[in-house]
Every structure is written in structure tokens, then in C-alpha cells.
């Protein structure tokens, strides 16, 4: 009977370790993908809008937007997001990525 309990415990621990490792890999992949997307948006925006007055004027609004996790949306940020999307229609980025890119200018 003791051998069965020991075997069951070993099997349970092996399954738990596998589940944790898989969860870690999925989480890591998601984080790396998000960072990569933000990095791509940052490089596209910074190379195109480094001296754009509309975009540079939105830095304070972008900071508030990022700090509030998207709850504070200033008028200048809205204008900059619209301006960026008009200038780069093929850019695929959400508002948070673009606001982060504006902050990197």
C-alpha cells in the first residue's frame, strides 16, 4: 500500500511540474510578443514622427494614458493617435503601444 501512495505522489508531482512549466512558457511567450509589438511600434513611430509637433505635444497626455492604464485619454493624445494612423495606415498597434512609442520620442 505504501508503494502505491508513493507512486501516486510522484505521478502527481510530475504532472504539476509539467503544468507549471507549460504555463510559464505560455506566459513568457505572451510577454515577449507584447514587448516585440511595442518595440516595433516604437521604432516605426520614432523613425517617422521624431520631430512632428502634433505627436511631441501629446507626450504629457501619453504619459497620463499609460500611467492610468488607458483610463485617461487627453485631447492631444487623441489628435496624435489619429495623426499617426493617417500617416501610417499599415501600422498595426493599439493605443497603449502607440502611447508608449510617443513617450519614447
Structural class of the secondary elements? mainly alpha
Give Rg in angstroms.
Answer: 22 Å
Could you tell me how far the N terminus lies from the C terminus, measured between alpha carbons in angstroms? 67 Å
**Average residue-wise pLDDT:** 75
Number of strands: 0
How many discrete domains?
Answer: 1
Percent of residues in helical segments?
A: over 70%
| Major sheet size, sense and barrel closure | none
SS element count, helices:
5
Which spans have pLDDT < 50 for at least 5 consecutive residues? none
Shape: elongated
What order do the SSEs take from the amino end to the carboxyl end, as H and E?
Answer: HHHHH
- Strand percentage: under 5%
Give a short overview:
This protein is mostly helical.
Would you kindly provide a written description of the structure presented here, covering whatever features stand out?
It comes from Pseudomonas spirodelae. Keywords: Signal. The chain is mainly α and about 100 residues long. The protein has one domain. The protein is about 80% helix and about 0% strand. Helix 1 (about 1-50) crosses helix 5 (about 95-105) and helix 3 (about 60-65) crosses helix 5. The longest helix has about 50 residues, at about 1-50. The relative contact order is 0.14.
Amino acid at each position: 500500500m505504501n508503494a502505491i501512495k508513493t507512486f501516486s505522489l510522484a505521478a502527481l508531482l510530475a504532472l504539476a511540474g509539467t503544468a507549471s512549466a507549460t504555463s510559464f512558457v505560455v506566459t513568457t511567450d505572451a510577454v515577449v510578443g507584447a514587448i516585440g509589438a511595442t518595440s516595433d511600434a516604437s521604432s516605426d513611430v520614432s523613425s517617422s514622427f521624431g520631430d512632428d509637433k502634433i505627436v511631441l505635444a501629446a507626450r504629457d497626455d501619453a504619459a497620463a494614458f499609460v500611467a492610468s492604464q488607458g483610463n485617461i485619454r487627453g485631447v492631444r493624445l487623441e489628435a496624435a493617435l489619429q495623426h499617426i494612423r493617417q500617416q501610417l495606415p499599415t501600422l498595426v498597434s493599439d493605443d497603449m503601444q502607440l502611447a508608449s512609442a510617443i513617450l519614447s520620442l
